[in-house]
């Protein structure tokens, strides 16, 4: 399965020749492999890099089983570089020849569907799942002390009578102990699996109790909770996980876009539009870069200091170097932002961001 390390490798790869990046949905609406193959063939017709086209055709004909939902491929044959990643989530078809690998769809997939932990919890135990890029794996379960049913006429109806409240208190103690142990067990799982966000399924009451049992650092990663039975099957959990992950990411993105635009309008810690964002990335001011997935713009890059702009300047304002023209300043800026430890949100669609110039950033200072 595609991992953060693979993504990092793509960021670190600095080809001297243009690289071919290709994203393909292999599950077409027509549903057949032949249709998907034909579609790939047609996409490659526009590419003027015969060795890279050959590498992709060879992989898709000889080595790929056409079972995944989609496929991301990168080829720079002149440098002996070829990577293919079958994915379990859909992508938008695209083929591009650029200075650096096109990573935005993968960043978006990783942000949305990467490294989730799912906990289904009740008063006695929990089932734990890892949800990563569309793959669901049940990694363990925990069963604590049994909760004995209160006898008729017990705690609730005869509160205060001798025996009633102590039995109820006893049950509460057992639940507290169970929750504590579940939290401990879940914490170990979150840690070993490098979980970045958590969803909790259960009754409202159990969700609250479990969340409160978690240390604050894990609580802050809880991004969603929903009613779901402990006995749910994998397809039910997977369907819910996809939906919840998508909604959580969409909500987060909309919030960040709004924030960037408001900050920019106030002349505070925000910028909108490509040139101001390129500047903020170059100076290390950009903390979060927000960019539409499909946005592309040619530009100029100073090889001396890496500064990029869309303006045809004679000399670099930072180091007086001469510029070279690049095919996609947006893709390059995403990569530089990542290298400078900014977080980058790749946004499939957002009208406010589109009107603001398709790219924006929230600044550190
Ligand atoms: Zn420069």
Summary, kept brief:
By secondary structure, the chain is an alpha+beta fold.
Characterization of this structure:
With 365 residues, this protein is α+β, with helices and mostly antiparallel strands. The protein has three domains: 4-102, 2-Layer Sandwich (Translation, Eukaryotic Peptide Chain Release Factor Subunit 1, Chain A); 113-232, Nucleotidyltransferase, domain 5, CATH 3.30.420; 250-363, 2-Layer Sandwich (60s Ribosomal Protein L30, Chain: A). It contains eleven helices and 16 strands. The strands form four sheets. Strands 7-6-5-8-9 form a five-stranded mixed sheet. It is globular, with a radius of gyration of 25 Å. Zinc ion (ZN) is lined by residues 302, 304-305, 307, 316, 318-319, 321. Residues 302, 304-305, 307, 316, 318-319, 321 line the site of zinc ion.
Compile the SSE list and pairings.
Blueprint lengths: L3 H9 L6 E7 L7 H12 L5 H14 L6 E7 L4 E7 L6 E5 L5 H10 L2 E6 L3 E8 L2 E9 L20 H29 L4 E5 L2 H10 L2 H4 L2 E5 L7 H32 L4 E3 L1 H9 L3 E7 L6 E3 L6 E2 L14 E3 L2 H11 L3 E5 L3 H5 L3 E5 L2
Parallel strand pairs: 5-8, 8-9, 11-15
Antiparallel strand pairs: 1-2, 1-4, 2-3, 5-6, 6-7, 10-16, 11-16, 12-13, 12-14
Helix pairs in contact: 5-6, 9-10
The structure holds zinc ion.
Which key terms come to mind for this protein?
365 residues, alpha+beta, Translation, Eukaryotic Peptide Chain Release Factor Subunit 1, Chain A, Nucleotidyltransferase, domain 5, 60s Ribosomal Protein L30, Chain: A, 3 domains, five-stranded mixed sheet, four-stranded antiparallel sheet, 11 helices, 16 strands, 40% helix, binds zinc ion
């Amino acid at each position: 399965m595609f991992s953060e390390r693979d993504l990092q490798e793509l960021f670190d790869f600095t080809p001297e020749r243009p690289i071919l990046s290709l994203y393909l949905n292999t599950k077409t609406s027509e549903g057949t492999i032949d249709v998907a193959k034909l579609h790939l063939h047609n996409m490659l017709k526009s590419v003027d890099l015969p060795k890279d086209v050959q590498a992709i055709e060879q992989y898709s004909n000889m080595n790929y089983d056409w079972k995944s939902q989609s496929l991301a491929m990168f080829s720079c044959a002149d440098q002996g570089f070829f990577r293919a990643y079958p994915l379990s989530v859909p992508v938008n078809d695209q083929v591009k020849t650029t200075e650096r690998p096109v990573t935005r769809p993968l960043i978006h997939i990783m942000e949305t569907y990467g490294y989730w932990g799912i906990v289904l919890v009740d008063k006695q135990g929990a089932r734990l799942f890892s949800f990563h890029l569309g793959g669901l794996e049940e990694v363990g379960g925990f069963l604590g002390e049994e909760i004995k049913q209160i006898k008729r006429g017990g705690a609730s109806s005869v509160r205060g009578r001798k025996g009633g409240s102590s039995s109820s208190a006893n049950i509460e103690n057992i639940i507290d102990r169970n929750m504590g142990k579940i939290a401990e067990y879940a914490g170990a799982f979150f840690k070993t699996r490098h979980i970045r966000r958590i969803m909790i399924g259960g009754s409202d009451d159990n969700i609250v109790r479990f969340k409160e049992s978690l240390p604050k650092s894990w609580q802050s990663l809880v991004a969603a909770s929903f009613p779901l039975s402990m006995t749910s099957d994998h397809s039910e959990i997977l369907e819910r996980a996809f939906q919840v992950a998508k909604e959580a990411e969409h909500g987060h993105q909309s919030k960040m876009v709004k924030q960037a635009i408001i900050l920019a309008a106030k002349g505070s810690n925000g910028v909108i539009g490509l040139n101001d964002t390129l500047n903020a990335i170059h100076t290390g001011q950009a903390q979060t870069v927000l960019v539409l997935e499909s946005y592309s713009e040619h530009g100029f890059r100073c090889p001396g200091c890496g500064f990029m702009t869309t303006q045809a300047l004679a000399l670099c304002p930072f180091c007086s170097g001469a510029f070279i023209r690049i095919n996609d300043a947006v893709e390059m800026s995403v990569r530089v932002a990542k290298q400078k430890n900014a977080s980058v949100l790749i946004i499939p669609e957002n009208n406010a961001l589109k009107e603001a110039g398709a790219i924006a950033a929230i600044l550190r200072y």
